[in-house]
């Protein structure tokens, strides 16, 4: 599919394709043409031209999402191209904007917004080398620190110290880039490039380091907080976090696995849970909440009823919800507003089929994404599932990996899915008849790949043919056995792996020591 380009955009491409000529001619270019030239340079991966455009940026703001998004001159959205050449040129250009003393333009730049960059699995840039969120965090922090060192050592124009540019970014901090980010945040007041953290993700960090850096980010501006892998945050730490720090603009909160475990609750823990619910109730903007792999049996109402703003996204996968929890969700004011819902890991057909049906009917007018992985949905439940999904006419994404469904049931379901007009992405399980007879669900990792691959490919082709015959080539159907693509995990998987090995080794050493003492 080719996207139409205006004559202006074609001319811009021609201009920037000769990098040497374009760089020499920038001083004669009208201010309002800079955004056009930037997008053309980004499309053609002209790193040197991008650098010089940013270095001489003549406008008040620089918003990556808007600059790379659909424009009248070129409709294609390039914000999902995290091209390393382009992004590095962009960020070094920003540093050199501060140091640039020969720019013919008066320095007007006040706001740089990098939050519109989207990390996706498939990259279309020619260099095929991406710069993910972690690497962008790393590079910006490094450039801020280098800038401060240079300004302290060099004879700079006094006007340089008056430059103040807020750089809005989604920070991603792990043990490996922690020190660098901390140094950049500590120097924020005196640095011309001021890191403004809009979203913060933390993996592989000790609690002490997490608490220290989260305070440095200025939480009053934080809109999204993700505490994900290997940050051992438990309920008492969450209460301390909410008691000591206010998050007035927080819209999205992701908590790590096992933050809550009601199986070992005391009266003190119950009060703690109530306090946490009340603190979340004070977050007037909170509309997205993810609490997967916590044990929350019978406590959903206590946690969510204080919320004054309806949730648009809720992930309670593998949270051991009971009928009372599901009944609360189905009858709560959140139900009518849920655009994304994840109930994976619950035996829906067995435990609460009618309540689930009610919940889905309430959110059907707005629901865009539904995840029901490992929910024990079998062939006998397919008609119930179709009936539940029928009103969900805005559904764009449906994931149901790990359910014991036959190829016949999947074909029946796919025939129905063709009727959902907005559907774009389907993640379906390996059919049960591809596995050896007697396989038990949920399937453990050891047996996950032990299926008839040729048979699977044949059935997958048949399912895609159903989509094709219904003119639904726009729907992508796949079976990601080990879960959906996660850009953050993909980027830091080596650090994550090393951390897990280290943790396992330490646990093993503790066990050996204890065993030796007993002996």
Rg value: 26 Å
**How many strand segments?**
13
Beta-strand percentage?
5-15%
What percent of residues adopt helix (DSSP H or I)? 40-55%
Q: Tell me, rounded to a whole number, the average pLDDT.
A: 93
The rough form would be described as globular
The side-by-side strand order for the widest beta sheet comes to: 1-2-3-4-5-6-7-8-9-10-11-12-13
Class per helix and strand makeup: alpha/beta
Question: Tell me about the biggest sheet?
Answer: 13 strands, parallel
In terms of quaternary structure, the protein is single chain
Low-confidence stretches: none
Distance between the termini: 70 Å
Summed up, the helix count is 19
Word description of this protein:
The chain is an alpha/beta fold. The chain has a domain of 33 residues. It contains 19 helices and 13 strands. Strands 1-2-3-4-5-6-7-8-9-10-11-12-13 form a 13-stranded parallel beta sheet. Helix 4 runs parallel beside helix 6 and helix 15 packs parallel to helix 16. The longest helix is centred in the C-terminal third of the chain and has 32 residues. The mean pLDDT is 93. InterPro entries: LRR_dom_sf, LRRC14/PRAME. It comes from Erythrocercus mccallii. Belongs to the PRAME family. LRRC14 subfamily. Keywords: Leucine-rich repeat, Repeat. This is Leucine-rich repeat-containing protein 14B.
Give a summary of the structure in a few sentences.
With 519 residues, the chain is of the alpha/beta class. The protein contains 19 helices and 13 strands.
């Amino acid at each position: 599919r080719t996207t139409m380009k205006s004559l202006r955009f074609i001319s811009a491409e021609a201009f920037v394709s000769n990098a040497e000529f374009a760089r020499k001619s920038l001083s004669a270019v009208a201010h309002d043409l800079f955004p056009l030239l930037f997008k053309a340079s980004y499309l053609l991966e002209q790193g040197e031209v991008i650098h010089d455009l940013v270095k001489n940026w003549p406008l008040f703001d620089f918003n990556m999402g808007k600059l790379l998004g659909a424009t009248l001159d070129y409709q294609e959205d390039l914000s999902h191209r995290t091209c390393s050449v382009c992004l590095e040129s962009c960020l070094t250009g920003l540093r050199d904007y501060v140091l640039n003393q020969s720019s013919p333009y008066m320095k007007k730049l006040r706001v740089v917004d990098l939050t519109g960059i989207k990390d996706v699995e498939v990259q279309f840039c020619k260099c095929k080398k991406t710069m993910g969120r972690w690497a962008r965090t790393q590079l910006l922090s490094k450039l801020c620190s280098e800038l401060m060192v240079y300004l302290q050592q060099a004879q700079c124009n006094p006007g340089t110290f008056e430059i103040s540019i807020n750089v809005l970014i989604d920070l991603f901090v792990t043990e490996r880039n922690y020190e660098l980010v901390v140094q950049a945040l500590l120097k924020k007041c005196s640095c011309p490039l001021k890191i403004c953290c809009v979203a913060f993700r933390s993996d592989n960090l000790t609690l002490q380091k997490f608490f220290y850096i989260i305070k440095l980010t200025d939480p009053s501006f934080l809109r999204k907080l993700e505490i994900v892998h290997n940050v051992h945050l438990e309920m008492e730490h969450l209460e301390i976090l909410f008691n000591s720090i206010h998050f007035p603009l927080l819209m999205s909160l992701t908590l790590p696995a096992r933050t809550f475990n009601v199986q070992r609750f005391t009266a003190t823990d119950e009060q703690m849970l109530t306090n946490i619910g009340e603190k979340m109730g004070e977050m007037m903007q909170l509309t997205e909440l993810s609490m997967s792999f916590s044990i929350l049996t019978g406590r959903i109402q206590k946690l969510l009823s204080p919320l004054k703003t309806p949730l648009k996204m809720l992930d309670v996968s593998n949270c051991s919800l009971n009928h009372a929890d599901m009944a609360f969700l189905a009858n709560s004011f959140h139900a009518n507003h849920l655009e994304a819902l994840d109930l994976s890991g619950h035996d829906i057909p067995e435990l609460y089929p009618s309540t689930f049906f009610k919940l889905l009917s309430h959110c059907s007018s707005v629901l865009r994404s539904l995840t029901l992985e490992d929910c024990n949905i079998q062939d006998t439940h397919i008609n119930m599932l179709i009936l539940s999904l029928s009103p969900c006419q805005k559904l764009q994404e449906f994931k149901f990996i790990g359910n014991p469904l036959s190829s016949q049931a999947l074909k029946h379901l796919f025939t129905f899915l063709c009727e959902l007009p907005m559907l774009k992405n389907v993640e379906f399980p390996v059919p049960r008849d591809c596995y050896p007879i007697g396989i038990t669900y949920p399937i453990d990792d050891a047996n996950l790949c032990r299926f008839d691959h040729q048979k699977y490919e044949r059935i997958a082709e048949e399912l895609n043919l159903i989509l094709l015959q219904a003119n639904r080539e726009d729907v992508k159907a796949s079976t990601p056995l080990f879960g959906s693509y996660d850009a953050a995990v993909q980027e830091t998987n080596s650090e994550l792996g090393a951390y897990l090995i280290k943790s396992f080794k330490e646990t093993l050493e503790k066990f050996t020591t204890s065993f030796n003492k007993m002996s």
